């Protein structure tokens, strides 16, 4: 049998025996919290402030002129770990304003049942066309509803400023530049 | 290359290591055989050497000899000195020589490649996201190896036309062109259709077609394959799918008896394109444009997709039962097909035995050959039907003999594989006189009048082998799944045979059928399906070598020495 060591218990002091200091310190904590400002967020009536670079629902954005930025290079489809993205590439017909871009998605689907909000699609996009913005709550009544189609993606994405204006520069070069004779 | 030439090797020194390479080889090819690569754009093993891209610059040297005496010049350690050329030379126009020293990794060589890349990328558009070549682009690959990652060029880039149609199947993007001239040399040297050329000078240089002409020969899409960048693109494949999603499966072109080796590129059961696969004994690195379009039969409107009895869709078992009941009534004739694979023809010949068929006929499909890679015989496997013993002589274009037999009441049931009976010369009255059991890929007059129809699979949906014009057995693999509910052709034939003799059917695999074939067919002795390899094996044509085949001389076929070539190719495969 293991050896047991019996410890001497010290008798309580007078102050301890009255319990008053303990009650006072407990009340201090309670009263302190009563007087602090309220931190509870009344969701969904109140919405949290979303920090910059938050990774919400992936969306497609348009440039300030309202033009489609995605050229359906399918890099996001390739990089997507849960294979949530599905693109059907298409050609921009000749005679259109953006014919020099040549390529645009015919259909663009992101399956929000699969998406893991990792942000790799945003990181890989060479045209800065896909962004994970501040939408964090998605719901639907059917599986189909949870697949965001191209229209929905543009509706969610809106317009973001464009620092590069790559295709505008390209068009300007075609018109003014050292054009091939 | 024959076995003798392979034995003849010489020693060259690559980056300080002595290596054995074939005698007389081009330096780029020799290094490639060693498993390394000298980057290059304009060089192509099957085209003439022009040396205009300068990407393959390497340092070259030979062991030094005294000019007067011919004695080796030794250094202080008694080792023969190497006389390095003062400037790097291009590997593509260098033939290996004994004792040759080359440096492929020195700083000078790297600087050369960096310099060439910088010039090539000066005016190159930033098109990779929309360029079909991305993923298999040599410029992209070497830019990651030798590019500097940013441009020092501050002037505006050259702007050139981006959507020039230079042929019915080819789109040219001038901005991407690096002026390697592969397409020009191909058109001139291989396709014998010299329509392409460069006009203008310097940065204005442009690829164009001869005025009033187009790049429209039946080999035009090979220029897309050999274009090292995305300048030439196929209008059929353009913007359809990025290449990194596609899975390439080795296959064989069924267009003609040439049997060009191909790769079938598919994603999730959908084929996007067919490209040639190199086989120096069959098609080098080329194939026809018409052969590339054959994948469209997979989703053709007239594809037979369901088992049918009396024109109504039925189950596989019901169709088998109906066919067996019909064939057991006796006097069955078989119309075999040179479009079926060797294994299917073999199982069909077994079925012919089991049903005690009264006769076996076959229909020839001949057209004009182009003396290159489209032969006169437009079926992939006529030789297979001979080897498997389905037929003993060359078939006719019309089934006149069968027609007479039907008129004479010698045939009750007709088992037809692939063939269109009306097109093969049977009259409506003759077809009406017999019960037709049809097995084929597409709906035609045979299926329209058939009592039982069995859908068969395209070459992309099964595996097997074909015997080409030189009696070379080549295998193809399964690229995409079969249509829903359709069994493999081999399974169908085996089920029919087994039911005819009262056995319980098995599910034969191609290797299993090959084991049987290797026993029963003399010229296939000692071969198995796996042993065919990717490049195929030539077999001895035996007594069929003297048959008057229709193929005239083409790229790798010479009727004069037909049988000899087949045996030779087999020896090295």
Layout of secondary structure:
The complex is a heterodimer of chains A (181) and B (573).
Chain A (H helix, E strand, L loop, with lengths): L13 H5 L1 H16 L22 E3 L14 H5 L5 E7 L11 E9 L8 H5 L5 E3 L14 E2 L1 H8 L8 H11 L5
Antiparallel strand pairs in A: 1-4, 2-3, 3-5
Chain B lengths: L2 H5 L1 E6 L2 E6 L4 H7 L23 E7 L18 E3 L4 E2 L10 E3 L3 H16 L15 H9 L17 E4 L2 E3 L9 H8 L6 E4 L6 E4 L11 H6 L5 E3 L12 E6 L8 E7 L2 E7 L12 H4 L15 E2 L2 E2 L2 H12 L4 E5 L5 H14 L3 E4 L19 H6 L12 H8 L5 E5 L10 H6 L1 E6 L4 H4 L1 E6 L8 E4 L4 E5 L12 H13 L8 H11 L16 E2 L23 H11 L1
Parallel strand pairs in B: 1-6, 17-18, 17-19, 19-20, 20-21
Antiparallel strand pairs in B: 1-2, 3-4, 3-5, 3-6, 7-8, 8-11, 9-10, 12-13, 13-14, 15-16, 15-21, 22-23, 23-24
* CATH hierarchy, class of the domain at 57-159 in chain A: Alpha Beta
The biggest beta sheet of chain B reads: 7 strands, mixed
Number of domains of chain B: 3
Structural class of chain B: alpha+beta
Rounded radius of gyration of chain A (Å): 30 Å
**Oligomer, anyone?**
heterodimer
Largest interface: A-B, 26 and 24 residues
Please tally the β strands of chain B and state the result: 24
Structure, explained:
- The complex is a heterodimer of chains A (181) and B (573).
- By secondary structure, chain A is α+β, with helices and mostly antiparallel strands.
- Chain A has a domain at 57-159: Alpha-Beta Plaits.
- Chain A is 28% helix and 13% strand.
- In chain A, the strands form two sheets. A three-stranded antiparallel sheet of chain A has the order 2-3-5. In chain A, strands 1-4 form a two-stranded antiparallel ribbon.
- Chain B is an alpha+beta fold and 573 residues long.
- Chain B has three domains: 3-108, Ubiquitin-like (UB roll) (Roll); 118-299, Alpha-Beta Plaits (2-Layer Sandwich); 307-564, Rossmann fold (3-Layer(aba) Sandwich).
- Chain B has 16 helices and 24 strands.
- A seven-stranded mixed sheet of chain B has the order 16-15-21-20-19-17-18. In chain B, strands 1, 2, 3, 4, 5 and 6 form a six-stranded mixed sheet that branches. Chain B has a three-stranded antiparallel sheet with strand order 7-8-11.
- In chain B, strand 20, helix 13 (445-448) and strand 21 form a beta-alpha-beta unit.
- The radius of gyration of chain B is 28 Å and the shape is elongated.
- The model of chain B is unreliable at 1-5 and 565-573 (pLDDT under 50).
- Chain A binds chain B through residues 71-75, 77-78, 89-91, 94, 100-103, 126-127, 166, 170, 173-174, 177-181, and chain B through 125-126, 128-130, 134, 156-163, 174, 204, 206, 238-242, 244-245.
